[in-house]
Amino acid sequence: MEALFGVCSNSLFPSIQNHKNTILLPFPNSAHLPFSSQLKSQNRVSLKPHDLPPFEASNNLLLKCISSDERLGTSVDEGDSLKDGVRIKNLAVFVSGGGSNFRAVHEAILRGEVHGRFVVLVTNKHDCGGAQYARENGIPVIIYPNTKGEPEGLSSNNLVAVLSSYEIDFILLAGYLKLIPSELIRAYSNSILNIHPSLLPAFGGKGYSGPTIHFVDENYDTGRILAQRIVPVLANDTAKELAARVLRQEHKMYAEVAAAICEERVIWREDGVPLIRSKANPEHYS
């Protein structure tokens, strides 16, 4: 069944670019991280607080990632290319578990279906399946938030600074189970997407289920809906069977929406409703 998208004239992207112009960025760009400060352990790299600028040192910032020396020494701007005049978008993903939606979008990127790249993963569980997949694919992993279980996690302000250093365009939430800090939501207004395994906001009528992708605001699951897909509930369905069918649609839809945002095909109506412009027919919105 075709995706049902939220119901177009002001471009999304001028407002999205605002976060790069307004954030004070005390954290250095990844191209300038000091090699002398790298402590390699278990395929991760840590930066000693005393090697960082005074702001980070005073806040006990400890950035943990698993990239190679070559990745740390290369700016995310290098290798940018244009597709129909649109540059590759830098994506961050937040996961707490296996990250199957993250994997689905990443695989679509590798197939050339999404004009973007994951440049960092954020997790509250350093050993979760999504983080392990990121390590296996050379994607840096950072920890948020700082807790007793993850004492090297970042603070909210430092998380915003680190993501800014990676020049992130969009953030995709893929099964991240912690509250997104208000500092991040304000910094990346209309740039954070979440996927929910139900038809928001009313969870659908009798006999229907399906996933929803929405922009993230400062309340749970109340942001503007960008895309939905209906999955019928069959008479003999078990909860497990229905959940599996919904998840398959999540994987497809998240890759399609990631492609749309990276190709700058999401626009905003004057009343604040986001729409997706058809790739095949730019005059059509779905």
UniProtKB/TrEMBL annotation:
Principal EC category: transferase
E.C. number(s) listed in UniProt: 2.1.2.2
Domain of life: Eukaryota
Reactions the enzyme catalyzes: N(1)-(5-phospho-beta-D-ribosyl)glycinamide + (6R)-10-formyltetrahydrofolate = N(2)-formyl-N(1)-(5-phospho-beta-D-ribosyl)glycinamide + (6S)-5,6,7,8-tetrahydrofolate + H(+)
Pathway(s) this gene product operates in, as recorded in its UniProt entry: Purine metabolism; IMP biosynthesis via de novo pathway; N(2)-formyl-N(1)-(5-phospho-D-ribosyl)glycinamide from N(1)-(5-phospho-D-ribosyl)glycinamide (10-formyl THF route): step 1/1
SUPFAM superfamilies on file: Formyltransferase (SSF53328)
GO CC annotation terms, alphabetical: chloroplast
Alphabetical keyword list: Purine biosynthesis, Transferase
One GO process term, biological-process aspect: 'de novo' IMP biosynthetic process
GO molecular function: phosphoribosylglycinamide formyltransferase activity
Domain Formyl transferase N-terminal: 89-257
Family the entry assigns: Belongs to the GART family.
PANTHER family found in the cross-reference section: PHOSPHORIBOSYLGLYCINAMIDE FORMYLTRANSFERASE (PTHR43369)
Protein name, entry field: phosphoribosylglycinamide formyltransferase 1
